[in-house]
Specification:
It is a single chain. By secondary structure, this protein is α+β, with helices and mostly antiparallel strands. It is 16% helix and 37% strand. Helix 4 packs antiparallel against helix 5.
């Protein structure tokens, strides 16, 4: 059974990257957003801040921190307002973390998801993706209470980026660009024209940021 740990100030005091954001169909051998744990700041709802070495596990959809070499789960997020890692802002949402991409009234967020898939002989993932943590194992030399993962031989991680808009207190998944017409009904025609003129792609993060900034004007 997976062990989880409550992150506290006492415990942790002892580029999501554009590459990942645009690698929707790409495969990697790491379940983490960043290539290594980075120093970040946890902003609590009460105003307190705590620094920690952090990274986000895209397969289990968990924020993790490094404590003396052990990879632990940021378990209780009820008191967390946001987490900043190298200028990337993550917020707890729908029991996982999203990266906040715009500061607009209706804000754009990205959810980063990884799925372990069995690779074919040429290294390309085969159909029938394996979900959850299948295809991933704990490292053999882990100490009790730590939680780190590595891929089994023959497996890769398929990356996926899911976009969400936050309107009021509601997160709305963006499945296609046409769905924006319902979120911004007064600007539907202008948005459609912007998408056509700029050849906006839902698979390009910079395109999505520009589109949502335009839609909020």
């Amino acid at each position: 059974m997976k062990k989880t740990f409550l992150l506290s100030a006492a415990a942790i005091l002892l580029s999501a990257s554009a590459t990942f954001a645009q690698a929707t169909a790409n495969q990697t051998t790491s379940p983490f957003i960043f290539p290594e744990f980075k120093t970040g700041t946890v902003f609590q709802k009460g105003g307190a801040t705590v620094e920690a070495s952090l990274d986000y596990n895209t397969v289990t959809q968990e924020m993790m921190f490094d404590q003396n070499g052990n990879k632990l789960i940021l378990d209780d997020v009820s008191n967390i307002d946001s987490i900043v890692i190298q200028n990337f802002v993550f917020v707890p949402a729908n029991k996982v973390f999203y990266e906040k991409l715009t500061k607009t009234p209706v804000s754009l967020f990205a959810q980063y998801k990884g799925k372990a898939v069995k690779a074919s002989a040429d290294g390309i993932g085969v159909s029938g993706a394996i979900g959850g943590t299948i295809g991933i194992v704990k490292k053999d030399n882990q100490k009790p209470g730590s939680y780190d993962m590595q891929l089994k031989k023959g497996y890769k991680i398929n990356n996926q980026v899911i976009y969400w808009l936050k309107k009021g207190n509601e997160f709305i998944e963006i499945n296609n660009l046409k769905s924006l017409d319902k979120i911004f009904p007064d600007k539907a025609s202008q948005i459609d024209a912007f998408i056509k003129e700029n050849h906006t792609s839902i698979y390009n993060t910079e395109d999505m940021i520009k589109l949502i900034e335009f839609s909020n004007r």
